Amino acid sequence: xxxxxxxxxxxxxRVLLIAVALLTVxxxxxxxxTGNALRAYLEHRVDGQLRAAAQVFSLxxxxxxxxxxxxxxxxxxxxxxxxxxxxPVITYVDDAGAVKSSIDSLAGPNRDERAAGxxxxxxxxxxxxxxxxxxxxxxxxxxxxxxxxxxxxxxTLSGPGSVLVSVSLAExxxxxxxxxxxxxxxxxxxxxALAGAGWFAVRSGLRPLSDIERTAAxxxxxxxxxxxxxQAGPGTEIGRLASALNGMLGQIEAAFxxxxxxxxxxxxxxxxxSHELRTPLAGxxxxxxxxxxxxxxxxxxxxxxxxxIARESDRLTRLxxxxxxxxxxxxxxxxxxxxxNPTALDLAPTDLRTLAxxxxxxxxxxxxxxPVTLTGPDGEGPPSPAPALADESRLRxxxxxxxxxxxxxxxxxxxVRIGVGTLGGHTVLEVADQGPGLTGDQLSRIFDRFYRAxxxxxxxxxxxxxxxxxxxxxxxxxTGRIEVHSVPGHGTTFRVLLPTDSDSHKADLxxx
Length: 512
Fold this sequence. Notes:
There is one protein chain. The protein is 53% helix and 14% strand. It contains 13 helices and 13 strands. The strands form 3 sheets. It has a 6-stranded mixed β-sheet with strand order 1-3-2-6-5-4. A 5-stranded mixed β-sheet has the order 8-10-11-13-12. A two-stranded antiparallel ribbon has the order 7-9. Helix 9 (352-366) packs parallel to helix 10. The chain is rod-shaped.
């Protein structure tokens, strides 16, 4: 379906056409009002002069012949009528409306200028009385000249009948027509000038929209970093539109970046998960293939093979369980606080000093020669109470992972410090070592899934790379956060911060 031509026109053209149309209507209405007002004013002046003349002529006797033919008025009367009315026609009629005499001030040498007189109706005494001395307009006997006429009864001393004083409205019509011609020429010139000025004004006013159009085209072409230039004030419509568009574009760019990052993480996760799952599965398959082919004939070899299959199966089970745990934690995080499953964590009042003491014993069990101390946060003073509303078994999993990393990734004999207490309104548990520390790149990826700071990816030193990712997810599920601070050559500190146990924190965590 073809759209109307008006809707296909540009906004600039439509705005300009509407403005010109409104100007045309306004100027036309103004011209009509002023033209009619001028005509009414001039006719009002003529009416006043007619009334004054009618009072005079109603008291004077006729100066024309009884036949009613046009006669030249006396010089004094002609001067009076010309000065007062500007060449009137005075007509005397009897009570029946018949013309008794008529005086034309233009009779004589100037007669050719007036080719016709007023087309007077037959006015009886009753008709004159009905007019009540109010002027009225009649046509000309020939041509389109209009006449203004007033009819009044004659005075008692001048005789019976009525007197009709008529004056041409040619001057009035000429003045009004001249004004119309002036308005027409001036109006067309003014509309042309305003249309030209309006074109430049509209183009300048809509330039921000053109910039928005170009920016949108560039964004549609793939440049999501582009922003709409804010050329107008923030309180204007275009300024608010530009601000809203820039906010929307920022969200779109962030959403695209987040999606790309999520897709990249998912690709890495799938690749790493496939690799991690393939390794134990390949070992199990290889050992079972050897047994099926009869390569394992002695009982000792069979027992050793079965033990290796059991170890690989255990490792595979732990890996799958870790991945399932991460998936459940991710689902809880994505659902938001209002949709989280309150049974995902077994929350109970807990003092993290218990976990810190157990972590101290774990370090001594893993490496008896390694010095380990128990302090307050940041190594200041002795350990202090650390109340929290938490799932102790899940937090123990976090602390065990942090202690295992400290023992595994630092040289034997490296000192380890476990700090516990409250700091800045948070319950804190930290594991610090004096090992080689982490580089900037390692710090930025330390919590990534399947990432191992040990580039050799050996299972003895690197594990599956899910421990710290699980630790962060578990701490986040407790509405806390885990931080890492490290300086190459000066050790690494992992710090777990949880809300301090209070009624408000209990209500908040339990509703989650």
